[in-house]
What we know:
Blueprint: E1 5-9, H1 16-28, E2 32-37, E3 43-45, E4 51-53, E5 56-57, E6 68-71, H2 76-80, H3 84-95, E7 99-103, H4 107-110, E8 120-121, H5 128-133, E9 137-138, E10 143-146, E11 149-152, H6 158-168
Parallel strand pairs: 1-2, 1-6, 2-5, 6-7, 7-11, 8-9
Antiparallel strand pairs: 3-4, 10-11
Helix pairs in contact: 1-6
Amino acid sequence: MAAKKTAVLVDEMYQVLEVWYPYYRLIEAGVKVDFVAAEAKKQYPSKEGYPCISNVAAKDVVAGDYDCLIVPGGYAPDYMRRSRAVIKFANDMVNTGKVIAAICHGGWLLCSTPIYKGKKATCFMAIKDDIINAGAEYVDEECVVDGNLITSRKPDDLPAFCKAILKALEVTD
């Protein structure tokens, strides 16, 4: 089986666990992971100041090179939505049918794509109305998988979230 490759979106004010837990879990399972952001080689601080350096700029990535997109929460999705290149990359990933995974406030970015139309999804309760308005049926569960869309509510849901991503990528460890 060919190696899998995942893009994890980052921006300032990201939620630490929602970036690093999936990153290390996927690396452990043999998945290549890139940190994709509005700018390459830039240091993005978490809400607590923990740094994450992006590998590549969203304008330089091609959806066909990735099997999965992970959108973490925190306040980062609000910043991500300010970048046309990040929104374009997210839409390209959605339009090519790749695995799309969002946790907590990560669902905000996906409201700028058509992924929610006709699907069940969950998120942090504060953005529930946003994903409903984007076309989703909101479900309050730790992890919701509907086709290629994987969503979770909060950091406590990370074990189920990562397990679902690995299953969707058909990765065993």
